[in-house]
Amino acid sequence: MTVPPTPDIVELFPLPSAPLAPEELLALYAPDRATPRLRVNFVQSLDGSATVDGLSGGLGGPADKVVFDILRGVSDVVLVGAGTARAEGYGALTVDERFHGWREALRMPVHPAMALVSGRLDLDPASDLFAKAPRRPLVFTSKAAPPDARRRLAPVADVVDAGDERVDPTLVVRELHVRGLTQILCEGGPSFFGDLIAADLVDELCLTISPVLEGGIGPRIARAGGDTVVPRHLELAGLLRSGSLLLSRWSRAAR
Questions:
Q1: Strands (E) located in 163-231
Q2: CA dist 27 to 31, 40, 94, Å?
Q3: Which residues pair with 208 in a beta bridge?
Q4: Please, are residues 242 and 6 in contact by the beta-carbon 8 Å criterion?
Q5: What class, spelled out in words, does domain 34-252 have in CATH?
Q6: What is the DSSP letter of 254?
Q7: Contact present, 224 and 231 (Cβ < 8 Å)
Q8: Which Gene3D superfamilies did the record assign (predicted)?
Q9: Domain segments of the chain: what residues?
Q10: pTM exceeds 0.90
């Protein structure tokens, strides 16, 4: 596997290392496929913002992009809220050729599936996200979604009800598992991440900490979701450094 040139990425925890080779990085993030896992991937500033000028892209760097690509490359499905997909300009979901052989060796489709969450189905069926998708996307919504929007999306996506008045994240995860999509990567947004936390569905958080002070304008990576706020404890599973950028992994604590 080859990757674009990047600054050196070294491991700080659990064991300090020399700069990691691409194969070593892949091994760090490759999941145990026998165990279903929901990962969430976010980047935030030092002062807790999920965006700069409304987008997350201003917080990352080359090393963050390498890890972003690896997380997609080892997943069965990428799950994202419709608002984030619109704001970040999501197109058709594909992974780089360097992951194709790895995926095929595990009898995985060349590209992960794309799954969106949208209560209003406010999505453009003519956008590249649908029109150029190598696999037919899934769209999770509620039974209360507008019928006309449902009809517009039906030719280009599988629209799945996951709740009556609002989307229930537990039903979303259950529907993904039924389809054999057990290695789930969620890329936001904050509201849906909040719902996942409230439902206690998060197994791992991959959090990049950018050496930027944003100034307190942007949102947090999670917003309150559900009716009950219960702290969810995670344990540090890994910590990488590239320059002043920190790339952390936090896993569900032992119960």
A1: 183-186, 204-210
A2: 8, 18, 20
A3: 43, 247
A4: yes
A5: alpha beta
A6: P
A7: no
A8: Dihydrofolate Reductase, subunit A (3.40.430.10)
A9: 34-252
A10: yes
